[in-house]
Amino acid sequence: MSAQKVLTLSELTQDQAVRVEVNGVPMAVVLDAQGEVHAIGDTCTHGDISLADGFVEGESLECWAHGSAFSLRTGRPLNLPAYEPVPVYEVTIEGDDVLIDPAVTKAVN
């Protein structure tokens, strides 16, 4: 599988998540305050809730339902009630295009 265009940079608003689906894999895509684009699994590991409906704060995305925040860089939960990480996907920017390969996840350290 290879990276696919999921949206354009102009479709992203700083510090707001956008839900996309690539080959059936739901992701939350975020343009952070530093201008970096992140893609993490869109489903909260605590409550099966879309993270794209949550709140971006710094380098985290908080689930609106129960308040678990996940690192945009590692996918690790930063607080309870979630304790399992979400996947983090490699993002490639080509011009204005945001490309993601759902088969390529970043290693969680």
Automatic annotation (TrEMBL):
Pfam families reported in the protein's UniProt record: Rieske
Domain (Rieske) ranges: 4-100
Highest taxon in the source lineage: Bacteria
Keywords: 2Fe-2S, Dioxygenase, Iron, Iron-sulfur, Metal-binding, Oxidoreductase
Stored SUPFAM superfamilies: ISP domain
GO molecular function: 2 iron, 2 sulfur cluster binding; dioxygenase activity; metal ion binding; monooxygenase activity; oxidoreductase activity, acting on paired donors, with incorporation or reduction of molecular oxygen
Protein name according to UniProt: Dioxygenase ferredoxin subunit
Provenance organism: Microbacterium oleivorans
Lineage, highest ranks first: Bacteria, Bacillati, Actinomycetota, Actinomycetes, Micrococcales
